[in-house]
Specification:
The chain has helices at 18-31, 48-55, 81-86, 97-102, 107-120, 132-136, 140-156, 180-194, 199-204, 215-222, 239-248, and strands at 6-10, 38-42, 60-64, 91-94, 123-128, 163-166, 206-210, 229-232. With 253 residues, it is an alpha/beta fold. Helix 1 runs parallel beside helix 11 (239-248). The structure holds 2-phosphoglycolic acid. The site of 2-phosphoglycolic acid has 13 residues, from strand 8.
Length: 253
C-alpha cells in the first residue's frame, strides 16, 4: 500500500510578509481541504505567525525552514523549536543543501537539529543529496548514505513521524529534474537503509523527492513505489502550480 503522500513547499527567502499572506490565502482556496495528502508550506520566519492565521481551519500545515537545537539561549539571530511551535509550526526542514553549502551545516548539526525537533514534537523534513561532481564521480550512494546515517537512528526513534527528502543538489532550482529511474534508485536504497532500524521504520518513513518538481513532472515521480511525496521550491511560490502538484499525489486514506 502506498504511504500517505507529503507535498511540502519550501518558500526559501521569498514571500516573507504581505505576499506570503496573499499566497496562503490562495492556497487555502485552491487546495486547503484535501484530506488524503499531507500538505505543508514553509514560509520565512517573518511570515510564520501571519500565515498560521490564514491556514487556520484548513488542512494545510505550517513548516519552518530551519531551527536552532537549543530551546533558548544567547544565540543571536536563531529560532528554537518551542518558538516555532508557539507560532503554529508543525514541521521543520532540516539540512537543506543551501544550508549545508552556504551556511556551514554539517552532518552533526543536522542530527542535533533532528533530535531537537523530535523532542519538541516538530516533524522534521530532513534533506540530503549529492552534488553534480559527486554524481559524476559515481559517489551518489556513498554520499547520501553518509548523510543519512548521521541522523537515521535519531529519526527512527519515532517511526513515521519525520520524513526524509532526497534532493540532488544539481536538480535544485536548475530545471534539471532527476529522471524517475535516478530518483527511485536512491529512494529504494534509502528504504533499504531504513530497514537497518527495523521493518516498521522502513515501512512507515516517507521519503520525498525534491529538485525542480513541477506540475508536469510530479505525477511520474510520485507514482514510483518509494517516492512518497515532494519538497517543492520554485513551483511552491505560485498557488496554482503548487496545488497542481498536490493534486498529482496519489491519495491514501
Ligand atoms: P526547486 O527547489 O523545486 O526550486 O528545485 C527545491 C528545494 O530546494 O527544496
Amino acid at each position: 500500500m502506498k504511504r500517505r503522500a507529503v507535498i511540502a513547499g519550501n518558500w526559501k527567502m521569498y514571500k516573507g510578509g504581505a505576499l506570503g499572506v496573499e499566497l496562503a490565502q490562495k492556497l487555502v482556496v485552491a487546495c486547503g481541504d484535501l484530506a488524503t495528502v499531507d500538505v505543508v508550506v514553509a514560509p520565512p520566519f517573518t511570515a510564520l505567525a501571519a500565515v498560521a492565521h490564514e491556514l487556520q481551519g484548513s488542512r494545510i500545515d505550517l513548516g519552518a525552514q530551519n531551527l536552532h537545537p537549543a530551546a533558548e539561549g544567547a544565540f543571536t539571530g536563531e529560532v528554537s523549536a518551542p518558538m516555532l511551535l508557539e507560532s503554529g509550526v508543525r514541521w521543520v526542514i532540516i539540512g537543506h543543501s543551501e544550508r549545508r553549502q552556504l551556511f556551514g551545516e554539517t552532518d552533526d548539526s543536522v542530527r542535533d537539529k533532528v533530535r531537537a525537533a523530535l523532542e519538541h514534537g516538530l516533524r522534521p523534513i530532513v534533506c540530503l543529496g549529492e552534488t553534480l561532481a559527486e554524481r559524476e564521480a559515481g559517489r551518489t550512494l556513498e554520499v547520501v548514505h553518509r548523510q543519512f546515517d548521521a541522523f537515521a537512528a535519531t529519526l527512527a526513534s519515532k517511526p513515521g513521524f519525520g520524513v526524509v527528502a532526497y534532493e540532488p543538489v544539481w536538480a535544485i532550482g536548475t530545471g534539471k529534474v532527476a529522471s524517475v529511474e535516478q530518483a527511485e534508485e536512491v529512494h529504494s536504497a534509502l528504504r533499504a537503509r531504513l530497514a537497518n532500524h527495523g521493518p516498521e521504520v522502513a515501512e512507515r518513513t516517507r521519503i520525498l523527492y525534491g529538485g525542480s518538481v513541477k506540475p508536469d513532472n510530479a505525477a511520474a515521480l510520485l507514482d514510483q513505489p518509494n517516492i512518497d511525496g515532494a519538497l517543492v521550491g520554485g513551483a511552491s511560490l505560485d498557488a496554482e502550480s503548487f496545488c497542481r502538484i498536490v493534486a498529482a499525489a496519489p491519495s491514501a486514506a
